[in-house]
Leucine rich repeat containing 49
Amino acid sequence: LISFPSNLQVNNCGFQLVIQTSSIPEKNKPIEFRINKEQSSFHNRLLQHDLEKNYSGRQDNMNFGSSSSITFPVLHRTAEEKILNSDRLTLERQKLTVCPIIDGEDHLRLLNFQHNFITRIQNISNLHHLVFLDLYDNQIEEISGVSTLRSLRVLLLGKNRIKKISNLENLKNLDVLDLHGNQIAKIENIGHLSELRVLNLARNLLTVVENLNGLDSLTELNLRHNQVSTIVRNVDTLPCLQRLFLSFNNISSFEDILCLADSSSLSDITLDGNPIAQETWYKHTVLHHMMQLRQLDMKRITEEERRMASIAARKEEERKRESHRQTLLKEKKRLTIGNIARQWEIQQNRIALEASLNKDKENEPCQINGSAAYVFPEESRSLDTILSSAVQGLSVLESHLVEVEGDTLGLYGAGALECLDRNWSVQTAGIIATVSFMFIEFDEIVQVLAKLKTKFPNCVHLKFKETNLVALQQFNALAEMHRMEQLTVDPQGNPVVNFTLWKYYVLFRLNHFNLQKINGVKVTENDIVKAERLFGILAYVASSELPHYRMLSLFGESRRKQFHFLLEGRGKKSGAGSEESSDNRRSGGESTARATLNYMTKDFHMEKLEEIKERKTFCQTYVENLVKEAADINMKNESLQKLWPQMFIELVRDAVIEIRNKNSYMKLCLQRITEQKQ
């Protein structure tokens, strides 16, 4: 409660006033006013004025003086009246438009002008002992005329038209300042009021609570029914502030009032009517951070409420931390995917540039419009050097991302394929039904399809985005999967989708999977029949043209038996193809003819080309050696034919000479035989 000196009473008393004005024709006839007796509770009025919604109606202003000029009325009291109420004067509800001249009342301490039509504070500068001035419910637009009232302790200017706080420099002893129900948009010019204990600024146009430094004695601050959304960090430094009324403002988050948690003196606060009060965590959060409070929204706080608030606040903090962590993870995911996308784009540009360089080399020399062939600006540098500047700084982020969300495994970037080598738990691997590939070359995906069907046996849906699916034959590789019910190929980064018949080729080649949906569209029986009509001959031609040994190398033991069945001719009868297809679909097996439509990755194709090249080189060398050896043999044969006649003659001659002496020849032969036995 607000205390006043014991000799100062606020209750109104009845008395007669004699007002003389020069504008009234009968100057000698006094005008009598009867002042009604009313009991006034100052503290209740101070706190509840801002809640009043219905104000009393205005009456026509009294017109003192002529229309050309206003002459201030002069107030005189009788000696008896002065004795009864020597230090107080009440002129409420008297239809006054100006403050009358109060003559001979310099000793007044209480002056009441409530519920009049006064527009300006005047004619009271001589009341140097005035302690209490009440101008509630008038039409005052500016605070003025009070600079000489140095003893004033209570100034009530509620429900007026004041737009700015000003001209209070000399009122250093002011204890109560009531400015509720005005049009004030900013708190200012009150930092010198070190003795001020009560400040009422309810029902104004305030948006920010600021400029309260210096109010060292302030215990109560009323800011109800404003537009406050933020409290600047200086309210918490008020050493004596105990009660703060912030009801019906625009405070929407606890961070807007977090500074109040540092106030050691604050015991009562009201926040009802704010957006923050509608939150489920409102009460628990406020009580948890403002342990010094005794009342919240005019309700006393119990120990049980404090305990529950502490528990709830801890849960809320955990929820916020988890939410913050999820936000950070989402942001990291976004940045990582962005980094992967940039690296993918650089890689595609690199491939396109290499293809362009190779094409230029093949076409050299060439002329364009009669000028020299185009030379790249970075021609003197290597391709890696050309593109190195584009990837600077990207290594800070991850170059791949593996994400399990629900039953979907998301793989971003080529490095993510390494996750298939991890030891996945049975539970996690069992729930994966969809695998999504992004920013990964399809040829690299083909190499891990076998691992995919082993690691995730329940996977039935594959998604491809930015995987360079450019040819129909690439879909042949998907036949390695264990099973598949859905296939999604995003047009972004997969030019094959631009082919009109790509879906029908998929249905034909992956017929044994019994696909249910392609790109989210349900597959019908008519689609399957159309696919068979369009591409059925393709499998027959492929199987017919492929050598038998190549066919056998493609199949396992069961497929070899089917192949032999085809070779015997029994499978070539009319309708056999469709029956085989139907049987394979029922059994879940792949058609023998369709199995010949396979896909070789670029790397595998290059390996095959290298192998063929090596074989070609070997064969060429072998044939050259054979030719050389045959040429040597032929040369030797020709030489032999030329030398043989002479050689034969010499042989015959030597034989004749040797056997001419028969005894010597026999002796020589026996000697040779003896030497051989030894």
